[in-house]
């Protein structure tokens, strides 16, 4: 768990160094919202084996936001894989 926390922190620091901190956080928030919307759509659709499609759609939408969105999608994907 400490290693995972360290990796998340390092990736956050590296992502923020390339852009403004507040724009990065805004992109990360919007990317997390995209991932949540894809998850909600998956729950609503309730089709068998549709999780990969909705996960890919959430990642795509979040990554379009910029580096912050891509970072949020990566972190959420990492944590969802651990569960």
Which SSEs are present, and which pair or pack?
Elements lengths: L1 H16 L3 H25 L5 H13 L3 H16 L1
Helix pairs in contact: 1-4, 2-3, 2-4, 3-4
Task: Give a summary of the structure in a few sentences.
By secondary structure, the chain is mostly helical. 84% of the residues lie in helices and 0% in strands.
Helix content: over 70%
**Uncertain segments:** none
How many β-strands, per DSSP? Answer: 0
**Rg:** 13 Å
Mean of pLDDT:
82
For the sheet with most strands, the description reads:
none
N- and C-termini, Cα separation? 13 Å
Question: How would you spell out the order of helices and strands?
Answer: HHHH
The best one-word shape is flat
Helical element count?
4
Strand content: under 5%
What class, by secondary structure content? mainly alpha
Oligomer: single chain
Structure in words:
The relative contact order is 0.19. With 83 residues, the protein is mostly helical. The model has no long low-confidence stretch (mean pLDDT 82). α1 (2-17) runs antiparallel to α4 (67-82). It has helices at 2-17, 21-45, 51-63, 67-82. Residues 1-18 form the signal peptide. One of its GO terms (cellular component) is high-density lipoprotein particle. It comes from Pongo abelii.
Question: What would the keywords be for this entry?
Answer:
83 residues, single chain, acute phase, mainly alpha
